[in-house]
């Protein structure tokens, strides 16, 4: 389990997060909702140890040890937490298989090259999510949805128990949005992996998340099970607009602006 206590983060004296407490349990999907600038991406980076808060801490509790994500080595934390960023900037002149086998780096020594078993883990990860046919394609030549799947496969090969995704459906079409989130849901259920996502679309959060955390002005406005938290009152307060909830085929509510 990951426990974040009293997380407070500022950038150049500008407060971004204020006194946030979170608990992340394996096998569940957590969706952070909030307007632009609410602190979603910053929160994910603090949980992952990429940003250090001015106050508070984030600890991973395993069966045998407790790890402070801001004090342990990046390699050690990477064995527990995998991170899929919002954007894939830069040029990656690698084949898909080479991108996925990079997920094994936390398990390698300094200057150690991947071994046969590392490539086998990468191939299995590609097979598990059904994209083994892409193994010899250039990462830069495949579609945006396929790139997301490759990066998720890399995290699977990494063997992490916590999967952090920063707006995983941004820039994807309708089909790929649902395909990626269904993939995340399957991974979470089958492998008992916790998925922690920053999300823009409350309707996708309603259908795919188990637990919602609403951030507003860097504070945790509301959190809890989807049916408990995704109310018209909370959504109106979160987005500063009138909201109407209608039925969805997934059995939950559809979020619409109220006219």
TrEMBL record:
<keyword id="KW-0067">ATP-binding</keyword>
<protein>
    <recommendedName>
        <fullName>ABC transporter domain-containing protein</fullName>
    </recommendedName>
</protein>
<dbReference type="InterPro" id="IPR003593">
    <property type="entry name" value="AAA+_ATPase"/>
</dbReference>
<dbReference type="InterPro" id="IPR027417">
    <property type="entry name" value="P-loop_NTPase"/>
</dbReference>
<keyword id="KW-0813">Transport</keyword>
<keyword id="KW-0547">Nucleotide-binding</keyword>
<keyword id="KW-1278">Translocase</keyword>
<dbReference type="GO" id="GO:0005524">
    <property type="term" value="F:ATP binding"/>
</dbReference>
<dbReference type="InterPro" id="IPR017871">
    <property type="entry name" value="ABC_transporter-like_CS"/>
</dbReference>
<dbReference type="InterPro" id="IPR003439">
    <property type="entry name" value="ABC_transporter-like_ATP-bd"/>
</dbReference>
<dbReference type="GO" id="GO:0016887">
    <property type="term" value="F:ATP hydrolysis activity"/>
</dbReference>
<dbReference type="Pfam" id="PF00005">
    <property type="entry name" value="ABC_tran"/>
</dbReference>
<feature type="domain" description="ABC transporter">
    <location>
        <begin position="2"/>
        <end position="242"/>
    </location>
</feature>
């Amino acid at each position: 389990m990951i426990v974040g206590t009293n997380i407070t983060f500022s950038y150049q004296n500008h407060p971004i997060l204020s006194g946030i407490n979170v608990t992340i349990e394996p096998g569940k999907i957590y969706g952070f909702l909030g307007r632009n600038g609410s602190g979603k991406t910053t929160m994910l980076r603090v949980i992952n140890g990429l940003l250090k808060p001015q106050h508070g801490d984030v600890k991973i509790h395993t069966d045998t040890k407790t790890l402070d994500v801001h004090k342990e080595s990046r390699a050690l934390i990477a064995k527990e937490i995998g991170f899929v960023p919002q954007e894939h900037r830069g040029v990656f002149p690698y084949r898909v298989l080479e991108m996925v086998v990079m997920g094994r780096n936390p398990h390698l020594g300094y200057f150690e090259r991947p071994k046969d078993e590392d490539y086998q883990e990468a191939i299995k990860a590609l097979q598990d999510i059904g994209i083994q046919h892409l193994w010899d394609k250039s990462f830069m030549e495949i579609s945006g949805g396929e790139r997301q799947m490759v990066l998720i496969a890399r995290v699977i090969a990494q063997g992490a128990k916590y999967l952090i995704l920063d707006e995983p459906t941004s820039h994807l079409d309708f089909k790929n949005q649902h395909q990626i989130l269904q993939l995340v849901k399957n991974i979470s259920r089958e492998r008992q992996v916790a998925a922690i996502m920053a999300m823009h679309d409350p309707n996708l959060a309603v259908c795919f998340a188990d637990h919602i955390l609403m951030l507003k002005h860097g504070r945790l406005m509301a959190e809890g099970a989807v049916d408990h938290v995704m109310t018209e009152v909370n959504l109106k307060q979160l987005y500063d607009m009138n909201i109407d909830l209608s039925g969805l085929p997934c059995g939950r509510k559809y979020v619409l602006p109220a006219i």
